[in-house]
Design a protein that fits this description.
63% helix; elongated; mainly alpha; 473 residues
Amino acid sequence: MTTKLARLLLVQTCILALVGGCAGGPGASSQAQTNKPDDSNYEYDGWLFKSLTGRKKESASAEKPATAAQTTQSQTAAAQGVVQATANVPAAAEAVGPLVPGPSSRSSAAGPPPTIPAELPPPPEGAISIASVKSIEEQKKKGFELADLAPDVVYNNIKKAAGYGPDEKIAKAAKQEGDTLFKEKKYKEAAEKYATAAARWPDSPLEEDALFLQAESEFFADLYPKAHDTYGGLLKKYSNTRYLDTVMIRQFALGRYWEQLYTKNPTLPVTPNLTQKDKPMFDTFGFAVQAYERIRAYDPKGPMADDSLMALGNAYFLRGRWGDAAEQYDLLCKEYPNSEFQLKAHEFGLQANMRKYQGSAYDETPLKDADKMAKTTLTQYHGKLGEEEKRVANAAALIREEQANRDFVRAEYYAKHRYYGAARLYYNSVVKEYPGTTRAKEAQQRLEEIKNEPDEPPKRLGWLTGMFGNEKK
């Protein structure tokens, strides 16, 4: 009996706690409960928020007279400087009228809109705006999401809590100070001011301007790695920035400078740089490649796109990376037909593909690409190559010899294993498709030698395979 009574008391205590928590909330006094509107049709969602935004039901606000509790509530809100917007009292913005010229949203029966004052009176001290209340309520309804744990969100929340959140006045003041320092050629100090301006007023034209000027200041201060990062941040957030042409020129200059540094003093990518501020800490050549690639990634139709492809192809070519070089030259030939580098791209692309080819035992794709490049070069630029025309013609002849050699090697393989039918097929291919080559003459001789040989070798164990039935049907 004692156990049942204890359980009953525990259940009643939980029910009372739940009802009390939902009705009054933590810390709700008896006076606050008395001031709550006494309306059975009123859907309770926080009486203060409902009163401020005028979201009471029409039956409660238009049909029923105000009770003593509601009168006390309105007087209390007015004393605190809260502007109350109900169905009968228009909001402050509506009472003033539209803030821009144009037709009024008010009915014509209501008369002409009131005159817009030159300056709105400041709100009473301690006033709570409707927008602020709505924003707080929306945040409460939003609840917790996993996106709130993202590092950038957490970082921004910490900045706001520490007093370093968005502030337009501080951002504008910092930018003005940066402009002054920039004119005085104090670029390093100007970069710091522009960084502050960009951080204090994000997602705005001011941030775009500040990021560009910060990168420019770092560039002229010879802080090239920092400038490279800042240009990258600008392009990532404002890919169609109005400073795109200038940024592309800067990226090309950085890529060329770092490539020359690496050529003069090659180092491993993991070798640290702790002395030069104009050089990345690691992988100088990798940063040069990234600078070149950014140009085509963010401005593929711009004036520097073909320059970046040619420069990147040459950088790979000089370092023996034939596959990467051939890819860049091929892109330039296909996507920028009007480029001034078309001829050089064809010539160097031909050489890169020939060096990429590893022999008859490997993939023949580079050889085919080289053959196509040689034919295109001789056709499109006939008479314009000068001394290079003879060199390209010799390369085309070498490619043809190697193509004949690939088929001849296959024929020799089948002849060695006495599959003379397959061997004759490849010998004939060499003779017909590559006439005049050295291998064509040898193939003709080999055809004469094996003309009486059977297509396949004799089956020495035919009696054994016949025991299991005819394998050919």
